[in-house]
Design goal:
The chain is an alpha+beta fold. The chain has a single domain, classed as Beta-Lactamase (2-Layer Sandwich). The chain is 37% helix and 24% strand. It has 4 helices and 7 strands; from the N terminus they run H-H-H-E-E-E-E-H-E-E-E. A 5-stranded antiparallel beta sheet has the order 4-3-7-6-5. Strands 1-2 form a two-stranded antiparallel ribbon. It is globular and about 40 Å long.
């Protein structure tokens, strides 16, 4: 009887800890889920259509089309390689082809380094940092999801302003 009570207590405590997030993976809100789906679609599109390497440019054009499925208001895609070179960013095209490995966000984070590290370690991840709004000098807090592309040393990301 005592073993059953101990087992029951263990299960109750475990469930409480899981529900508080101590052992659970990060819980996603609706906006987070939208961003994850958005990036997953882009990664799948790149994996299907971005090979051989010469076809990547065609994929980036699709990502940058303001009337296409990969731009939704201030939600847009960006793509970097593992050397920190920006391959695509439709809202900040001035960053394209630049080596930005050591770029810091206004709040002092090495965001590209962190995303590369997260991609190499986990295949994907989340990061929150300060970033300018598109077509504005205003800085906002941006929550971003990024994910690596299978068979390529690149990752694709998108985020939203909090």
């Amino acid at each position: 009887m005592r073993k059953k009570i101990n087992l029951l207590l263990f299960l109750i405590i475990s469930m409480c800890l899981l529900n508080t997030g101590i052992f659970a993976a990060e819980k996603l809100n609706l906006k987070d889920k939208e961003i994850v789906n958005f990036v997953n679609k882009a990664v799948q599109y790149m994996e299907k259509n971005g090979t051989p390497k010469q076809k990547e440019a065609e994929v980036f054009k699709k990502f940058d089309d303001p009337k296409g499925i990969f731009v939704k208001g201030d939600i847009y895609l960006f793509t970097y390689n593992f050397d920190g070179v920006c391959l695509q960013n439709c809202m900040f095209p001035n960053l394209e082809n630049l080596g930005l490995l050591d770029m810091k966000s206004p709040d002092g984070k090495f965001i590209i380094k962190e995303m590369i590290k997260g991609t190499k370690k986990n295949g994907q991840g989340w990061i929150t940092f300060e970033w300018p709004y598109p077509n504005s000098k205003k800085i906002g807090t941006k929550r971003t999801f990024y994910k690596g592309v299978a068979g390529k040393n690149i990752f694709i990301g998108a985020g939203y302003y909090l």
